[in-house]
Design a protein that fits this description.
Length: about 450
Protein backbone atom coordinates (compact mmCIF):
# COMPACT_ATOMS: atom_id res chain seq x y z
CA UNK A 1 0.00 0.00 0.00
CA UNK A 2 1.28 3.47 -0.89
CA UNK A 3 1.39 5.61 2.25
CA UNK A 4 3.04 8.64 0.62
CA UNK A 5 -0.30 10.38 0.19
CA UNK A 6 -1.87 9.60 3.54
CA UNK A 7 -2.49 12.38 6.02
CA UNK A 8 0.16 11.52 8.59
CA UNK A 9 2.86 11.22 5.94
CA UNK A 10 1.85 14.56 4.43
CA UNK A 11 1.83 16.23 7.85
CA UNK A 12 5.28 14.90 8.73
CA UNK A 13 6.67 15.94 5.37
CA UNK A 14 5.22 19.42 5.69
CA UNK A 15 6.49 19.69 9.25
CA UNK A 16 10.02 18.77 8.21
CA UNK A 17 10.29 20.67 4.92
CA UNK A 18 7.20 22.86 4.80
CA UNK A 19 6.75 26.48 3.93
CA UNK A 20 7.48 29.22 6.44
CA UNK A 21 4.17 29.41 8.31
CA UNK A 22 2.46 32.79 8.36
CA UNK A 23 -0.74 31.04 9.35
CA UNK A 24 -2.32 29.45 12.39
CA UNK A 25 -1.59 27.84 14.81
CA UNK A 26 0.45 30.23 16.91
CA UNK A 27 3.12 27.72 17.93
CA UNK A 28 4.40 27.85 14.31
CA UNK A 29 5.40 24.16 14.38
CA UNK A 30 8.15 24.96 16.88
CA UNK A 31 9.17 21.67 18.47
CA UNK A 32 11.50 23.53 20.82
CA UNK A 33 8.39 24.62 22.72
CA UNK A 34 8.06 21.21 24.24
CA UNK A 35 10.71 18.79 22.93
CA UNK A 36 9.41 15.86 24.95
CA UNK A 37 5.79 16.23 23.86
CA UNK A 38 4.90 12.66 22.87
CA UNK A 39 1.21 12.76 21.94
CA UNK A 40 0.69 9.00 22.06
CA UNK A 41 2.55 8.72 25.34
CA UNK A 42 0.30 11.21 27.13
CA UNK A 43 -3.02 10.45 25.44
CA UNK A 44 -5.29 9.22 28.24
CA UNK A 45 -8.88 9.39 29.39
CA UNK A 46 -10.37 10.28 32.78
CA UNK A 47 -8.31 7.95 34.97
CA UNK A 48 -7.47 8.36 38.65
CA UNK A 49 -5.42 11.43 39.42
CA UNK A 50 -6.14 13.31 36.17
CA UNK A 51 -9.46 14.97 36.97
CA UNK A 52 -12.56 15.33 34.75
CA UNK A 53 -13.08 18.48 32.66
CA UNK A 54 -16.84 18.34 33.14
CA UNK A 55 -16.56 17.90 36.94
CA UNK A 56 -13.14 19.35 37.80
CA UNK A 57 -11.90 19.19 41.37
CA UNK A 58 -8.17 18.51 40.95
CA UNK A 59 -5.44 19.38 38.45
CA UNK A 60 -7.83 20.63 35.76
CA UNK A 61 -9.65 22.85 38.25
CA UNK A 62 -6.30 24.33 39.31
CA UNK A 63 -5.22 24.77 35.66
CA UNK A 64 -8.40 26.68 34.76
CA UNK A 65 -8.09 28.83 37.88
CA UNK A 66 -4.56 29.75 36.83
CA UNK A 67 -5.81 30.67 33.34
CA UNK A 68 -8.45 32.92 34.94
CA UNK A 69 -5.75 34.69 36.95
CA UNK A 70 -3.59 35.20 33.86
CA UNK A 71 -6.43 36.67 31.80
CA UNK A 72 -8.08 38.44 34.77
CA UNK A 73 -11.47 36.80 34.36
CA UNK A 74 -13.91 35.65 37.03
CA UNK A 75 -13.93 32.09 35.73
CA UNK A 76 -12.24 30.43 32.75
CA UNK A 77 -13.18 27.19 31.00
CA UNK A 78 -10.86 25.07 28.85
CA UNK A 79 -12.30 24.26 25.41
CA UNK A 80 -11.08 21.37 23.30
CA UNK A 81 -13.62 21.81 20.50
CA UNK A 82 -12.39 25.27 19.53
CA UNK A 83 -14.14 28.62 19.86
CA UNK A 84 -17.16 27.09 18.14
CA UNK A 85 -18.20 25.19 21.26
CA UNK A 86 -17.64 28.28 23.38
CA UNK A 87 -19.86 30.37 21.13
CA UNK A 88 -22.61 27.74 21.14
CA UNK A 89 -22.49 27.40 24.94
CA UNK A 90 -22.30 31.13 25.61
CA UNK A 91 -25.30 32.07 23.48
CA UNK A 92 -27.40 29.23 24.88
CA UNK A 93 -26.42 30.08 28.45
CA UNK A 94 -27.58 33.71 28.29
CA UNK A 95 -30.53 33.41 25.89
CA UNK A 96 -33.68 31.39 26.42
CA UNK A 97 -35.44 29.91 23.41
CA UNK A 98 -37.07 32.66 21.41
CA UNK A 99 -35.11 35.52 23.01
CA UNK A 100 -33.92 38.50 20.99
CA UNK A 101 -30.19 38.76 20.19
CA UNK A 102 -28.31 41.61 18.53
CA UNK A 103 -25.74 39.95 16.27
CA UNK A 104 -22.85 41.52 14.38
CA UNK A 105 -23.31 40.69 10.70
CA UNK A 106 -19.66 39.63 10.39
CA UNK A 107 -20.01 36.94 13.04
CA UNK A 108 -18.63 33.46 12.51
CA UNK A 109 -21.06 30.87 11.18
CA UNK A 110 -21.09 29.14 14.59
CA UNK A 111 -22.87 32.18 16.07
CA UNK A 112 -25.54 31.96 13.38
CA UNK A 113 -25.84 28.23 14.06
CA UNK A 114 -26.33 28.94 17.77
CA UNK A 115 -29.17 31.36 17.05
CA UNK A 116 -30.79 28.78 14.80
CA UNK A 117 -30.46 25.95 17.32
CA UNK A 118 -31.98 28.10 20.08
CA UNK A 119 -34.66 29.55 17.80
CA UNK A 120 -33.62 33.12 18.65
CA UNK A 121 -35.04 36.28 17.13
CA UNK A 122 -32.06 37.97 15.47
CA UNK A 123 -31.38 41.58 14.64
CA UNK A 124 -28.19 41.91 12.58
CA UNK A 125 -25.89 44.91 12.71
CA UNK A 126 -23.81 45.46 9.62
CA UNK A 127 -20.22 46.54 10.24
CA UNK A 128 -19.22 49.65 8.34
CA UNK A 129 -16.16 51.14 6.70
CA UNK A 130 -13.23 49.97 4.63
CA UNK A 131 -9.61 50.97 4.09
CA UNK A 132 -7.67 50.09 0.93
CA UNK A 133 -10.28 47.50 0.04
CA UNK A 134 -10.10 45.96 3.53
CA UNK A 135 -13.39 45.69 5.45
CA UNK A 136 -12.94 47.42 8.80
CA UNK A 137 -15.70 45.32 10.31
CA UNK A 138 -16.37 47.72 13.19
CA UNK A 139 -19.73 47.74 14.90
CA UNK A 140 -20.65 51.32 15.75
CA UNK A 141 -21.97 52.13 19.24
CA UNK A 142 -24.57 54.47 17.72
CA UNK A 143 -25.97 51.54 15.73
CA UNK A 144 -26.13 49.46 18.91
CA UNK A 145 -27.94 52.33 20.66
CA UNK A 146 -30.44 52.64 17.82
CA UNK A 147 -31.07 48.89 17.83
CA UNK A 148 -31.98 49.02 21.52
CA UNK A 149 -34.29 52.00 20.96
CA UNK A 150 -36.16 50.00 18.34
CA UNK A 151 -36.03 46.66 20.19
CA UNK A 152 -36.25 47.02 23.97
CA UNK A 153 -36.39 43.23 24.42
CA UNK A 154 -32.79 42.54 23.24
CA UNK A 155 -31.19 40.22 25.82
CA UNK A 156 -27.72 39.79 24.37
CA UNK A 157 -25.24 41.56 22.10
CA UNK A 158 -22.77 39.37 20.19
CA UNK A 159 -19.73 41.09 18.65
CA UNK A 160 -16.70 39.76 16.77
CA UNK A 161 -13.65 41.79 17.77
CA UNK A 162 -10.97 41.68 16.51
CA UNK A 163 -12.05 40.65 13.04
CA UNK A 164 -10.01 38.28 10.89
CA UNK A 165 -8.25 41.42 9.62
CA UNK A 166 -7.45 42.52 13.18
CA UNK A 167 -9.96 45.38 13.50
CA UNK A 168 -11.52 45.95 16.93
CA UNK A 169 -14.80 47.66 17.78
CA UNK A 170 -15.40 50.12 20.62
CA UNK A 171 -16.28 47.44 23.14
CA UNK A 172 -16.20 49.87 26.08
CA UNK A 173 -19.03 51.95 24.62
CA UNK A 174 -21.01 48.94 23.43
CA UNK A 175 -20.82 47.37 26.90
CA UNK A 176 -21.98 50.61 28.53
CA UNK A 177 -24.98 50.80 26.19
CA UNK A 178 -25.92 47.12 26.64
CA UNK A 179 -25.54 47.15 30.42
CA UNK A 180 -27.79 50.20 30.70
CA UNK A 181 -30.48 47.91 29.21
CA UNK A 182 -29.52 44.88 31.35
CA UNK A 183 -28.27 43.04 28.28
CA UNK A 184 -25.24 40.74 28.24
CA UNK A 185 -22.30 41.31 25.89
CA UNK A 186 -20.51 38.30 24.38
CA UNK A 187 -17.32 39.02 22.45
CA UNK A 188 -15.87 36.50 20.04
CA UNK A 189 -12.23 37.47 20.57
CA UNK A 190 -10.98 34.31 18.92
CA UNK A 191 -8.20 36.19 17.15
CA UNK A 192 -7.22 38.31 20.15
CA UNK A 193 -5.96 35.96 22.87
CA UNK A 194 -2.56 37.67 22.73
CA UNK A 195 -3.77 41.25 23.08
CA UNK A 196 -3.45 41.58 26.86
CA UNK A 197 0.28 40.91 26.79
CA UNK A 198 1.68 43.98 25.04
CA UNK A 199 0.65 47.65 24.76
CA UNK A 200 1.30 47.46 21.00
CA UNK A 201 -2.03 45.62 20.69
CA UNK A 202 -5.55 46.98 21.20
CA UNK A 203 -7.21 46.41 24.57
CA UNK A 204 -8.87 43.05 25.12
CA UNK A 205 -12.64 42.85 25.53
CA UNK A 206 -11.92 41.49 29.03
CA UNK A 207 -10.33 44.83 29.92
CA UNK A 208 -13.27 46.62 28.29
CA UNK A 209 -15.90 44.99 30.52
CA UNK A 210 -17.51 42.41 28.23
CA UNK A 211 -19.43 39.75 30.12
CA UNK A 212 -18.20 36.68 28.19
CA UNK A 213 -15.05 36.58 26.07
CA UNK A 214 -14.00 33.62 23.94
CA UNK A 215 -10.36 33.11 22.92
CA UNK A 216 -8.99 30.77 20.27
CA UNK A 217 -5.59 30.42 21.89
CA UNK A 218 -4.31 28.20 19.09
CA UNK A 219 -4.73 31.07 16.66
CA UNK A 220 -2.16 33.49 18.07
CA UNK A 221 -0.61 31.75 21.09
CA UNK A 222 1.59 28.63 21.28
CA UNK A 223 -1.08 25.97 21.72
CA UNK A 224 -2.36 23.10 19.60
CA UNK A 225 -5.14 23.54 17.06
CA UNK A 226 -8.65 23.29 18.49
CA UNK A 227 -7.70 24.70 21.90
CA UNK A 228 -9.64 27.68 23.23
CA UNK A 229 -10.79 29.42 26.39
CA UNK A 230 -14.14 30.79 27.49
CA UNK A 231 -13.91 33.57 30.08
CA UNK A 232 -16.83 34.55 32.29
CA UNK A 233 -15.94 38.10 33.26
CA UNK A 234 -18.95 39.64 34.98
CA UNK A 235 -21.56 38.73 37.56
CA UNK A 236 -24.29 39.12 34.93
CA UNK A 237 -23.47 35.64 33.67
CA UNK A 238 -24.31 32.46 35.55
CA UNK A 239 -21.14 30.39 35.18
CA UNK A 240 -23.05 27.23 36.09
CA UNK A 241 -25.19 27.70 32.96
CA UNK A 242 -22.03 28.00 30.85
CA UNK A 243 -20.79 24.77 32.45
CA UNK A 244 -24.12 23.05 31.75
CA UNK A 245 -24.11 23.92 28.07
CA UNK A 246 -20.43 23.07 27.64
CA UNK A 247 -21.29 19.60 28.95
CA UNK A 248 -23.90 19.37 26.19
CA UNK A 249 -21.87 20.72 23.25
CA UNK A 250 -18.33 19.67 24.18
CA UNK A 251 -17.07 16.11 23.88
CA UNK A 252 -17.58 13.93 26.94
CA UNK A 253 -14.06 12.62 26.25
CA UNK A 254 -11.99 15.81 25.92
CA UNK A 255 -8.44 15.33 24.72
CA UNK A 256 -5.85 15.37 27.51
CA UNK A 257 -3.24 16.12 24.84
CA UNK A 258 -5.10 19.33 23.96
CA UNK A 259 -5.73 20.25 27.59
CA UNK A 260 -2.07 19.64 28.34
CA UNK A 261 -1.21 21.98 25.48
CA UNK A 262 -3.43 24.70 26.96
CA UNK A 263 -1.83 24.29 30.37
CA UNK A 264 1.67 24.41 28.90
CA UNK A 265 0.73 27.61 27.05
CA UNK A 266 -0.52 29.10 30.33
CA UNK A 267 2.75 28.10 31.97
CA UNK A 268 4.74 30.01 29.35
CA UNK A 269 2.51 33.07 29.72
CA UNK A 270 2.85 33.02 33.49
CA UNK A 271 6.62 32.58 33.44
CA UNK A 272 7.80 34.40 30.35
CA UNK A 273 5.14 36.61 28.75
CA UNK A 274 6.97 39.88 29.38
CA UNK A 275 10.19 38.76 27.71
CA UNK A 276 8.53 36.96 24.79
CA UNK A 277 6.07 39.74 23.96
CA UNK A 278 8.65 42.48 24.34
CA UNK A 279 10.81 40.85 21.65
CA UNK A 280 7.75 40.08 19.49
CA UNK A 281 6.52 43.68 19.66
CA UNK A 282 9.94 44.94 18.61
CA UNK A 283 9.98 42.61 15.57
CA UNK A 284 6.51 43.77 14.55
CA UNK A 285 7.42 47.44 14.89
CA UNK A 286 10.51 46.95 12.74
CA UNK A 287 8.51 45.14 10.05
CA UNK A 288 5.90 47.90 9.80
CA UNK A 289 8.63 50.55 9.69
CA UNK A 290 10.50 48.78 6.88
CA UNK A 291 7.33 48.34 4.82
CA UNK A 292 5.90 51.82 5.33
CA UNK A 293 7.02 53.20 1.94
CA UNK A 294 5.77 50.58 -0.53
CA UNK A 295 4.80 51.81 -4.00
CA UNK A 296 2.05 49.41 -5.09
CA UNK A 297 1.33 46.99 -2.28
CA UNK A 298 0.09 48.53 0.94
CA UNK A 299 0.46 47.26 4.50
CA UNK A 300 -2.53 48.29 6.61
CA UNK A 301 -1.14 50.14 9.65
CA UNK A 302 -1.78 49.04 13.20
CA UNK A 303 -3.35 51.30 15.82
CA UNK A 304 -5.50 51.28 18.94
CA UNK A 305 -8.24 49.83 16.73
CA UNK A 306 -6.23 47.38 14.62
CA UNK A 307 -4.10 44.48 15.81
CA UNK A 308 -0.47 44.64 14.70
CA UNK A 309 -0.08 40.85 14.66
CA UNK A 310 -2.15 40.51 11.46
CA UNK A 311 -0.05 41.61 8.50
CA UNK A 312 -2.73 42.65 6.00
CA UNK A 313 -1.39 43.34 2.49
CA UNK A 314 -3.70 45.26 0.17
CA UNK A 315 -3.41 44.68 -3.59
CA UNK A 316 -5.89 47.41 -4.57
CA UNK A 317 -3.18 49.54 -6.24
CA UNK A 318 -1.59 46.58 -8.07
CA UNK A 319 -2.13 44.69 -11.31
CA UNK A 320 -2.97 41.58 -9.31
CA UNK A 321 -5.60 40.31 -6.95
CA UNK A 322 -5.23 38.79 -3.50
CA UNK A 323 -5.23 35.21 -4.73
CA UNK A 324 -2.40 35.94 -7.18
CA UNK A 325 -0.31 37.46 -4.38
CA UNK A 326 -1.13 34.51 -2.12
CA UNK A 327 0.11 32.05 -4.76
CA UNK A 328 3.22 34.10 -5.48
CA UNK A 329 4.21 34.25 -1.81
CA UNK A 330 3.66 30.53 -1.50
CA UNK A 331 5.24 29.28 -4.71
CA UNK A 332 8.17 31.66 -5.23
CA UNK A 333 9.04 32.76 -1.70
CA UNK A 334 8.11 29.64 0.27
CA UNK A 335 5.85 31.63 2.61
CA UNK A 336 2.45 30.18 3.47
CA UNK A 337 -0.15 32.94 4.04
CA UNK A 338 -3.15 32.46 6.27
CA UNK A 339 -5.73 33.45 3.67
CA UNK A 340 -6.59 35.70 0.76
CA UNK A 341 -9.63 37.51 -0.53
CA UNK A 342 -9.79 39.41 -3.83
CA UNK A 343 -8.38 42.67 -2.40
CA UNK A 344 -5.83 41.43 0.14
CA UNK A 345 -3.75 38.73 1.80
CA UNK A 346 -3.40 38.07 5.52
CA UNK A 347 -0.12 36.87 7.02
CA UNK A 348 -0.67 35.82 10.63
CA UNK A 349 2.19 36.22 13.05
CA UNK A 350 2.68 35.11 16.63
CA UNK A 351 5.12 35.41 19.47
CA UNK A 352 6.90 32.35 18.07
CA UNK A 353 7.71 33.81 14.66
CA UNK A 354 11.49 34.18 14.56
CA UNK A 355 13.40 37.26 13.45
CA UNK A 356 14.38 35.26 10.36
CA UNK A 357 10.70 34.68 9.53
CA UNK A 358 10.06 38.41 9.69
CA UNK A 359 13.09 39.13 7.50
CA UNK A 360 11.91 36.63 4.89
CA UNK A 361 8.48 38.23 4.79
CA UNK A 362 9.86 41.77 4.64
CA UNK A 363 12.23 40.90 1.79
CA UNK A 364 9.51 39.10 -0.18
CA UNK A 365 6.99 41.94 0.07
CA UNK A 366 9.63 44.53 -0.83
CA UNK A 367 10.73 42.57 -3.90
CA UNK A 368 7.17 41.95 -5.08
CA UNK A 369 6.34 45.63 -4.61
CA UNK A 370 9.29 46.61 -6.81
CA UNK A 371 8.43 44.14 -9.58
CA UNK A 372 4.66 43.61 -9.51
CA UNK A 373 3.96 45.86 -12.49
CA UNK A 374 6.44 43.85 -14.57
CA UNK A 375 5.11 40.48 -13.40
CA UNK A 376 1.39 41.23 -13.62
CA UNK A 377 0.92 43.11 -16.87
CA UNK A 378 -2.13 41.24 -18.12
CA UNK A 379 -5.63 42.26 -17.07
CA UNK A 380 -7.35 39.91 -14.66
CA UNK A 381 -9.28 37.09 -16.29
CA UNK A 382 -11.78 35.02 -14.35
CA UNK A 383 -10.48 31.65 -13.15
CA UNK A 384 -13.96 30.14 -13.29
CA UNK A 385 -16.62 30.85 -15.89
CA UNK A 386 -19.74 32.21 -14.29
CA UNK A 387 -22.78 30.96 -16.12
CA UNK A 388 -26.07 30.83 -14.24
CA UNK A 389 -24.04 30.13 -11.11
CA UNK A 390 -26.89 30.23 -8.62
CA UNK A 391 -30.32 28.73 -8.95
CA UNK A 392 -31.55 31.85 -7.19
CA UNK A 393 -32.83 35.29 -8.06
CA UNK A 394 -33.40 38.42 -5.98
CA UNK A 395 -36.25 37.83 -3.58
CA UNK A 396 -35.66 34.08 -3.17
CA UNK A 397 -35.10 32.72 0.34
CA UNK A 398 -31.81 30.91 0.94
CA UNK A 399 -32.13 27.30 2.05
CA UNK A 400 -28.49 27.05 3.16
CA UNK A 401 -25.65 29.18 4.54
CA UNK A 402 -22.92 30.07 2.04
CA UNK A 403 -19.45 31.36 2.89
CA UNK A 404 -15.80 31.47 1.89
CA UNK A 405 -13.54 29.65 4.36
CA UNK A 406 -11.48 31.09 5.82
CA UNK A 407 -12.80 33.26 7.39
CA UNK A 408 -16.17 31.43 7.64
CA UNK A 409 -18.33 34.56 7.80
CA UNK A 410 -21.61 33.90 5.97
CA UNK A 411 -22.30 35.71 2.72
CA UNK A 412 -25.91 34.62 3.15
CA UNK A 413 -27.55 32.53 5.85
CA UNK A 414 -30.38 30.05 5.71
CA UNK A 415 -33.67 31.93 5.71
CA UNK A 416 -32.14 35.19 4.45
CA UNK A 417 -33.46 36.78 1.28
CA UNK A 418 -31.21 36.87 -1.79
CA UNK A 419 -30.51 40.35 -3.15
CA UNK A 420 -28.84 41.25 -6.40
CA UNK A 421 -25.85 42.49 -4.39
CA UNK A 422 -25.46 39.13 -2.60
CA UNK A 423 -25.76 37.16 -5.84
CA UNK A 424 -23.14 39.39 -7.49
CA UNK A 425 -20.80 38.96 -4.52
CA UNK A 426 -21.05 35.18 -4.70
CA UNK A 427 -20.48 35.21 -8.47
CA UNK A 428 -17.47 37.50 -8.02
CA UNK A 429 -15.83 35.22 -5.47
CA UNK A 430 -16.37 32.19 -7.66
CA UNK A 431 -15.08 33.84 -10.83
CA UNK A 432 -11.85 34.74 -9.02
CA UNK A 433 -11.12 31.18 -7.98
CA UNK A 434 -12.56 31.05 -4.46
CA UNK A 435 -14.44 27.97 -3.30
CA UNK A 436 -17.90 28.77 -1.98
CA UNK A 437 -18.85 26.42 0.85
CA UNK A 438 -22.05 25.72 2.68
CA UNK A 439 -23.19 24.00 5.86
CA UNK A 440 -23.82 20.96 3.64
CA UNK A 441 -20.24 21.02 2.33
CA UNK A 442 -19.30 22.56 -1.01
CA UNK A 443 -22.22 24.39 -2.56
CA UNK A 444 -23.33 21.88 -5.18
CA UNK A 445 -25.03 24.56 -7.30
CA UNK A 446 -21.56 25.83 -8.14
CA UNK A 447 -20.39 22.73 -10.02
Amino acid sequence: MDYTNNLLHKLKKYGSHGLTPFHMPGHKRNNALCPHFDAYGIDITEIDGFDDLHHPDGCLKAAMERAARIFKSRKTFFLTNGCTVGILAAIHAVCKRGDHILLAGNSHKSAYNATMLNDLYVTCLNPIGELCGIPLGQIQPDDVENAFRQNSDIKCVFITSPTYEGVVSDINSIVEIAHSRNAVVIVDEAHGAHMQFSPIFPKSAIECGADIVIHGIHKTLPSLTQTALLHVVSELVDASEIKRYLSIFQSSSPSYVLMGSIDYCMDMLERDADRLFSAYSKRLTELYDKLSDLKKLEIIPYSETRDASKIVISTVKCNMDGLSLYNLLREKYNLQPEMSLPQYVIMMTSVFDSKNNFNLLTDAITEIDNTCDDIFTQPFTPKNKVNNLLNAKPGDIADDTLYVYPPGIPIITSGEIYTEEIINEINDYYSKGYKIKSNKGFATTFD
